[in-house]
C-alpha cells in the first residue's frame, strides 16, 4: 500500500484508570510524585516511569528487545566468555569495543578498603580506584539486543590484534579495533528503537526521533498522601519469647486515585523510521496501543499489587494533530461521599471531548471508538467495542486506510 493511502497521521489513546493504595512511581526520597494542577494537589506518575512499563510489555508483544546501557563492553565480554574466550582476553576485548566507538569513555571505579593501624583498633577509609578493562561509555548506548553478538563478531575478527594489545587503563588509551564497524553497529535499530526513538548525539546519524509521545499520568481529582507505618516481627524473638518489640520499623508513602493517561503515536514519523513498510507500521502501532493500555509501573508491587485495568479506553484517529483531554480535569473532579471518582471522570472526559472536537471540526477526527467497564453508551466517543483487540483493530483499519477483510501483508 502506498503512503498516500494512509488517511490519518495520529492515533490518540485516552485512558481513565482507578488505582488503589499504591506508589507506582517514587521520587528520590521514596515519596509519591505529585503535581499542582488547577490549584489542587494531584498524584502523578511520570511519563518515563509508565513508558518503561509500556516498553517492557511492547517488547514481549513484538518479540524484540533493545538494550540501553553504559556497560556495553562488559556485555560483550560476557558474550565472548560464553563463546569460550579466556576471561582476561574477553575483558580486554570488551574494553576495546567500548573504547573503540565515537563515544568518549571512562574507567569504572570500585571501592577499596584501606586499613591504617590506630591505637585501640583499626580505622577504615573508603577509597576508589579505577579498574583496568572495565570501561563505561560516557553516554548510554541504546541498541538492539542482537548488537551484542555483532560487536562480539568484530572482536572475533580482530582476535589476533587483541591478543597482543595492551589493556585499557586510562581514558587516553586507544582501541586497536576499527571505529567505523563499531559505530555502524551502534547505529542499528529494531522495532523498539524505531517506535520509542533514540538520543545518541556522539555517533553521527544514530539519533532516531520517537514516534510516540507519552504524557505524565495524573489523577483527575485532588489527592492526599497517606503514610503507612509498618513493623517486621523477629521470628526468633517471637518463638523464644525472650524479647519484646519488632525487629524492624519504618514507614512509606502511598496514595490512591483515578488517573487520566494519554499518549499518541505519529504514523508518519514511524513510517519514516522504518521505510514506510505498511505491515511493520501496523504491527508496531497495534503492539504499542495494546501495551500502553495494559501496562502498569511496578514500584512497590510486592506490597500493593495494584493490578487494575482501565475503566475506559478511548482511541481517536486524527488527521491533523494530537489532542489531549487533560484540560478537562483542570478543575478537579468532585464526588459526593461514597460515590467514587471514576464515573464522574468519564462523564467529564466525554463532555470535554464533544466540545473540543466540535471546536476543531469533525473532519479532523477520522474515526473513534471506546471500551469500558460499567459505563453506558458514551455519546461522542465513537463506536463501542467488546474487546481491546477489536478496538485496536478498528483504529488500525481506519488510520491505515484498510477495508474490512483486506489482506495487509
What does this protein look like?
Helix content is 33%, strand content 27%. It folds into 2 domains: 3-64 and 211-399, no CATH class; 68-189, no CATH class. The strands form 3 sheets. Strands 1, 2, 3, 8, 9, 10, 11, 12, 13 and 14 form a 10-stranded mixed sheet that branches. The protein has a two-stranded antiparallel sheet with strand order 4-7. It contains 13 helices and 14 strands. Helix 9 crosses helix 10 (278-294). By secondary structure, the protein is an alpha+beta fold. The chain has helices at residues 47-62, 72-82, 87-99, 147-157, 159-164, 179-186, 191-196, 235-240, 267-274, 278-294, 301-304, 342-360, 388-399, and strands at 10-22, 34-37, 40-45, 66-69, 105-118, 121-137, 141-144, 212-214, 217-219, 226-232, 248-266, 312-318, 365-372, 383-384. InterPro entries: CRISPR-assoc_prot_CT1975. Residues 162-173 have a biased composition (Basic and acidic residues).
Amino acid at each position: 500500500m502506498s503512503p498516500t493511502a494512509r488517511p490519518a497521521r495520529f492515533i490518540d489513546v485516552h485512558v481513565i484508570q482507578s488505582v488503589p493504595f499504591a506508589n507506582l512511581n517514587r521520587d528520590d526520597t521514596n515519596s509519591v510524585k505529585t503535581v499542582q494542577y488547577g490549584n489542587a494537589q494531584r498524584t502523578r506518575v511520570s511519563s518515563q516511569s509508565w513508558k518503561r512499563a509500556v516498553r517492557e510489555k511492547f517488547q514481549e508483544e513484538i518479540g524484540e528487545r533493545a538494550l540501553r546501557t553504559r556497560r556495553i563492553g562488559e556485555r560483550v565480554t560476557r558474550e565472548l566468555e560464553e563463546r569460550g574466550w579466556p576471561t582476561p582476553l574477553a575483558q580486554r576485548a570488551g574494553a576495546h569495543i567500548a573504547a573503540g566507538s565515537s563515544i568518549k569513555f571512562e574507567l569504572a571505579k570500585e571501592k577499596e578498603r584501606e586499613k591504617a593501624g590506630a591505637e585501640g583498633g583499626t580505622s577504615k577509609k573508603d577509597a576508589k580506584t579505577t579498574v583496568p578493562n572495565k570501561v563505561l561509555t560516557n553516554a548510554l548506548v541504546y541498541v538492539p539486543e542482537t548488537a551484542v553478538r555483532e560487536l562480539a563478531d568484530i572482536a572475533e575478527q580482530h582476535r589476533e590484534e587483541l591478543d597482543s594489545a595492551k589493556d585499557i587503563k586510562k581514558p587516553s588509551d586507544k582501541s586497536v579495533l576499527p571505529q567505523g564497524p563499531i559505530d555502524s553497529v551502534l547505529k542499528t535499530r529494531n522495532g523498539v528503537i524505531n517506535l520509542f526513538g533514540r538520543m545518541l548525539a556522539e555517533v553521527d546519524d544514530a539519533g532516531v526521533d520517537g514516534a510516540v509521545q507519552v504524557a505524565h499520568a495524573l489523577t483527575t481529582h485532588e489527592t492526599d498522601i497517606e503514610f503507612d507505618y509498618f513493623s517486621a516481627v523477629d521470628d526468633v524473638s517471637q518463638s523464644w519469647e525472650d524479647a519484646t518489640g519488632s525487629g524492624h520499623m519504618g514507614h512509606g508513602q502511598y496514595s490512591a486515585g483515578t488517573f487520566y493517561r494519554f499518549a499518541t503515536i505519529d504514523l508518519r514519523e514511524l513510517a519514516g523510521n522504518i521505510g514506510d513498510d505498511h505491515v511493520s507500521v501496523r504491527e508496531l502501532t497495534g503492539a504499542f496501543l495494546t501495551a500502553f493500555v495494559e501496562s502498569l509501573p511496578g514500584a512497590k508491587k510486592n506490597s500493593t499489587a495494584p493490578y487494575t485495568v482501565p475503566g475506559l479506553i478511548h482511541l481517536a484517529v486524527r488527521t491533523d494533530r494530537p489532542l489531549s483531554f487533560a484540560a478537562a480535569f483542570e478543575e478537579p473532579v468532585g464526588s459526593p461521599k461514597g460515590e467514587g471518582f471514576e464515573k464522574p471522570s468519564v462523564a467529564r472526559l466525554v463532555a470535554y471531548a464533544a466540545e473540543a472536537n466540535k471546536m476543531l471540526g469533525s473532519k479532523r477526527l477520522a474515526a473513534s471508538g471506546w471500551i469500558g467497564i460499567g459505563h453506558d453508551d458514551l455519546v461522542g466517543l465513537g463506536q463501542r467495542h467488546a474487546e481491546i483487540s477489536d478496538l485496536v483493530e478498528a483504529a488500525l483499519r481506519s488510520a491505515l486506510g484498510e477495508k474490512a477483510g483486506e489482506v495487509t501483508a
